[in-house]
Structures are given as C-alpha cells and as structure tokens.
C-alpha cells in the first residue's frame, strides 16, 4: 500500500499530449500525488518547459519527451525512452491527443481522415500494447483515455471527433474486460467544457458556421452547462489522479464524466 498522503508515490506515469490543457492538468495532478511523470507533446522544447514547471511546483521527477502522435511508429521510441527516464515501465498511461481538425461531416478531407485515425486511434492503441505487458506482469496498471462529448453525442462541425472518439472508447471497454483480472483498469474520462485553446478555437469556428459572434457562441456554450460555469483544469486532473490510485481498483471499463452535468443523456 502506498503512502496515503501521496497516493501515487512510487508510481510512474506517461501522459500523452500533456504540455498544455487537460493533459497538462493530469500530468500535474499525478506529480502532486507523488508519481514520476513523463510529459509529452510534439515539441521537445515545449515538453521540457512544461516538465520544468511541474517539477518546480510539485518537487516530483518530471521529464519531457517529444513524439509525433500522427506517426504511430514514434510510440515505440517514446515508450522505450519513458522506461529509461522513469527507471522502469509506466504504471499509469494517460491517452490523450491534440484537438482534432474541425470539419462538417459532408466535406471531411480524406487526408485528414487518414491522419486523424493515426492520431486518435492507431497511436494510442500502439502505445497501450507496448505498456500493457509490464502492467499485467506486475499486476497493477492504470490506463486512462481522455475522450470528448463526440464519443456519445455527434457534435456539429466535429466530424473527426464523432468518428474516432467512439472507436477508442469501444477499444477501452473491450480491453478492460480482458485485463481486469490482472489488476489493470481501463477507463475513459469525458470532459465537459474547460477554457482551453481547443475550446476557444472550436467556439470561434462554430460562431463563423452559425453566423454569430464569438461572444454569443460562448454564451450559448455556457448556457448549456447546469453547473453554470466552465470547468477548472484542476478538477479534471483530480479525477484522473483518483482513477490512477489504489483506491480506484474496482472502477473499470467505465466512462466518467467531469462535465458539470453538461452532457444531457444518461449513457
């Protein structure tokens, strides 16, 4: 059992797309709870800057490693470098990626279709397959996937979200059934609206699509949240850190919403 004051002490975490936004919030939460963390993005300079900031704020070991999620073969190198940097294989794997390109469904670009399959499905699955054997052998592992509302409810101007997020969510559920008896859990985190760069960009795109101001589009977005406010990044990170802990050992194959009640359905 780990130190209750630091539930992730002694754990090793690899966090994809974590130089900013929700991924960074998760990386920081893992570090605050005692884990050694690898921060990832496509830019080594950005990775290293984020790693320095999180290390300074938490006192944890935090290393930045760049990899291109559009190139699934990069996951082999990322995993090998993470094992070396962390002093062992990751116990915690957070699957995340940059926000997909915005597009109406009827005019989706086929080059984007292929590229985003690699970004949103092939790379996360490849990295999971690399990390899984050690998790099963040690009989502890936490795999978390950051999803989006498009996984359960098709959204306007987000054809790629609507297509590929359900695919990864189904993969996670299927995998959770196969590895549960080995002490490995696989869960999906479903965020609502947080004021990230992605949300700013998609709101501006929707405003142009609907012929309204960005301010009006943002007002409509806020009006759809029962909590009456946007989420705080720390709130999302806290849920990820809980799911990575020993205390969440019986939470498996689940989709957990951290959305202030924004998603209207029950499933």
What is the topology?
Layout: E1 12-15, H1 21-32, E2 36-41, H2 44-58, E3 62-66, H3 74-86, E4 92-95, H4 110-138, E5 141-146, H5 159-179, E6 184-191, H6 197-210, H7 214-223, H8 233-243, E7 255-258
Parallel strand pairs: 1-2, 1-4, 2-3, 4-5, 5-6, 6-7
Helix pairs in contact: 1-2, 1-8, 3-4, 4-5, 6-7
Helix/strand structural class: alpha/beta
Shape: globular
Low-confidence stretches: none
List the helices and strands in order.
EHEHEHEHEHEHHHE
The beta-strand count equals: 7
Tell me which oligomeric state these chains represent: single chain
Architecture overview:
With 267 residues, the protein is of the alpha/beta class. The chain folds into 2 domains: 12-192 and 232-254, NAD(P)-binding Rossmann-like Domain (Rossmann fold, 3-Layer(aba) Sandwich), CATH 3.40.50; 195-230, no CATH class. Helices cover 47% and strands 14% of the residues. The protein is built from 8 helices and 7 strands, in the order βαβαβαβαβαβαααβ. It has helices at residues 21-32, 44-58, 74-86, 110-138, 159-179, 197-210, 214-223, 233-243, and strands at 12-15, 36-41, 62-66, 92-95, 141-146, 184-191, 255-258. Strands 3-2-1-4-5-6-7 form a 7-stranded parallel beta sheet, sandwiched between helices. Helix 5 links the parallel strand 5 and strand 6 (184-191). Helix 1 runs parallel beside helix 2 (44-58), helix 1 packs across helix 8 and helix 6 (197-210) crosses helix 7. The radius of gyration is 18 Å and the shape is globular. The two termini are 34 Å apart. The model has no long low-confidence stretch (mean pLDDT 94).
